[in-house]
Amino acid sequence: MRDGLHHILGLATAFLLASIGAALADSSEEAREQKLERLVRQDCGSCHGMTFKGGLGPDIRAERMAGFTPSAIAAVILDGVPGTPMPPWRGLLSEEDALWIAEYLRKGGR
Amino acid sequence: MTALLKSLLIIAATLMASVTHAVAADQQPVLRGTGNLGIIVERTTGSLVIFDATERRMISRVEGLGDLSHASAVFSPDERYAFIFGRDGGLTKVDLLTSSIVHRVMQAGNSIGGAISDDGTLVAVANYEPGGIKVFDTATLAEVADIPATWTGGRSKTIGLEDAPGRRFLFSLWDAGETWIADFSKGNTPQITKLTGMGDRPYDALVTSDGRYYVAGLFGEDGLTVVDLWQSPLTPRRILRGYGNGETKLPVYKMPHLESWALAGNRFVLPAIGRHELLWVDARTFEETNRTAVYGQPVFAVAGPDGRNVWVNFAHPLNDTIQVVDSLTGSIVKQWKPGPAVLHIEFAPRGHDVWVSVRDANVVQVYDAYTFEKKAEIAANSPSGIFLTARAHRMGL
User: Which of B43, B45, B70 is the best substitution to test chain A (most A C-beta atoms within 10 A)?
Assistant: First the structure.
């Protein structure tokens, strides 16, 4: 009986710990995505517009971006376009970040 | 018994207070001036906060202004109306006293700012798409003139639209490297003068507060171009040529702004591009006098009205910091982090307070200009530009 209870308690604790762990992982992934989303809207937005309609930089809305592969877009983000105001983001963004942003642009949102 | 009476009295008093308040707000607006009002642009919600700069508190919010990322504003000569230039091509006339939209037109697809004529009758907007400027009657927002920025490459994006004495507007063509002057002194059909050879991709410009010089910053080359509007013929002159010493430019994550608040003592202070430096030039000769190494890519370098100190903010990712530079020595006298994404700096007209927007902290902070002590905060959603009505009486803003 006692053993049974222990077992159940143990399971419950393990389950609790596991779900806390998952929630933490989720929330750190969620936090990362929120941070990237804000960067794209606000900081890319300072040249491409908050709605990506364009500004000093061109229109990068989904209709235009869907025609490019994610890796091509990520390459432009990481290396910039030399001789133009499009700056290289390597150093500030990782390859995964750039790919996440590329997908985000192609979908026009999360 | 007394307790009951007390609470009844409190209830009655509260009711009366709210009734009086409602009357004051809705039916009989209190008489007031507008000289100490200002607006804060809330860039993500398309709204404005109207605030009282003396009491340092919000008065009201105006909504429905569209995409206000990179929005700016000018004011009517009576300081009652604000004209807001939205990113999405919206031009909105707002009554600061009634906190309401008076007129609103969608005049282009994509805009970058505007100016009001010296006599207050014309408001002009610079457009990226379709490239050119449009000019409107400030009373009605009816279109007065449409000036496409046509050059051999098609239509150019326009930037650096400024007012100049004599009902003139000056603006530059990013793609064409030209500056055009639209002169409305003889009526509402402008005479256009085109200056070529301004340089590779002018990205912003200023008119000095005496209305004499138009200074354009260049993205594509190391240098700026100045036009002395007192001379005839008008001749662009390159200054600070080669300020980059041939070194590789640092990446620019946000384009700097040139502001008419650049005069600090007998020198102008200008942000370098692709270098973490401020450039100081003699206000008469436009020769470089010295440089100040700063924390990041400067975005705004704003001198107080007395020219004593220059407050500087920076591009992403160093945009959490402000540096204050002494204009006599060119040295940094103060540096601190107001919070994430410091976007704009505005001095009170007499220079005692400095207003700072901190976008990602959703707050506008008010500092004492001399002790740097924080005096107040106003909550705002993703605040960017801060504009005080006293701008109405300054040239080149």
Answer: B70
Asked if the Cβ–Cβ distance from A46 to B110 is below 8 Å, we say no
Cross-chain Cβ contact A47/B255 below 8 Å: yes
CATH architecture of B255-337: Beta Barrel (2.40)
Instruction: Reduce the secondary structure of B129-182 to three states and give it as a string.
Output: ECCEEEEEECCCCCEEEEEECEECCEECCEEEEEEECCCEEEEEECCCCEEEEE
pTM of the predicted protein model: 0.90
What confidence tens digit (pLDDT) does each residue in B8-34 have?
444 444 444 443 344 444 556 689 999
Taking domain B108-248, whether its CATH number is 3.90.550.60 is answered by: no
For residue B164, the Cα-to-chain-centroid distance in whole angstroms is 16
CATH number of the domain enclosing A57: 1.10.760.10
- Mark yes or no for CB contact B255/A46 under 8 Å: yes
Using a CB-CB cut-off of 8 Å, the residues of chain B touching A46 are 69-70, 254-255, 316
Q: Which fold has domain B35-106+339-397?
A: Lipocalin (2.40.128)
- ipTM for the predicted complex comes to 0.87
